[in-house]
Every structure is written in C-alpha cells, then in structure tokens.
Amino acid sequence: MSEREVHDGAPNAGEDPATPGLPAGDRSEVAAARLRLLTEARRRIAIYQPSLPADVYGGIAEQAELRRLATSGRGAEIRLIVHAADDALRDQHRLVALAQRLSSVVLVRTPLEEVDLAYASSYLLTDQGGYLFQPDARRADGRAALADRAAQAPLMQHFNEVWERSARASTWLPLDL
C-alpha cells in the first residue's frame, strides 16, 4: 500500500468506493476513527491490541461506547486480545474495570505462542464490516473504513486463529471474595 492510500483517506484496494476510508494518518485521526467505529458497531467488536496505553480505549467517549455495546442485549460481545494484560491491570486501564463488571460479555485473552506475541499490529473490527488497522501499534497511523468486509476478512481470520490459540486473561477476572 502506498503512503498516499494510508494518509489521505482514499479507498483501499477492494474497498467499495461508496464507503470511503476514514482518515487515520495521525494520533487524532486514529482516535476519531476508533470512536466512529465503536459508535457504528451494533453488538459485536473484536480488538487486537498488543498493549493498552491509557489513551487507547480509555477515553470517556470510548468507554461510553464500549459500555453501550456490552449492554446492548442478546448477542453483545466484545472480544479483546491483549499481549500485556498484566500491564493494563497494573496501570488500572479503564477497560479492565469494564471487563471485570461485564465478564460474560467482555472476553479477554492473551496469546501464548511466540508467533502471536511477536505480532506488532493492532486492529479494531466491527460487526458492520468496519475496521481500523495500524501496522505498528506503537505508531499513530493506519487505515480505516466504516464498511469494507473484503479488507476486514483477513483481519477477522487472523483474530479468530489467534483467539483459539490464546488463554483467558485470568488476571482480569473479578475476585469473588
């Protein structure tokens, strides 16, 4: 993919021109794309995030959308794969509290295999065919679309494969004392 396609919001290969890409070339555009995708999701999302810095899924608006999704009723599901689950717990990331309160809907797993732990990209996938993909999770650039199932499909396949090989993030489970 060319630099132009990543930064100017032009449609990606295979994307329907009627649903143009969302801008995702810098930190504020990535955050806006993430929030827009969360807002457009109906019941299910999948998130692959190697680490969880406080500004990723931790803002008030993002938390409100995640809460809305988690409490949207039958079929609601938020699946999250995070490499550094213990770090997010130690840093008291807001997503941890949501996962503990709604542990039957917010499902968190941690990869076990080296090939999965070496994966440095991050992405958000919605049930509406939307996605935000960042080739390097530490950098604030990527590509996004509200509805592009063709571009989303390989990411969803990767997510499902890693999900099956991963273990439940037991450190995030609520303590029943």
UniProtKB/TrEMBL annotation:
Domain DUF7931 stretches: 27-169
InterPro entries, alphabetized: DUF7931 (IPR057691)
Residue ranges of the region described as Disordered: 1-26
Descriptive protein name: DUF7931 domain-containing protein
Pfam families to which the protein is assigned, alphabetical: DUF7931
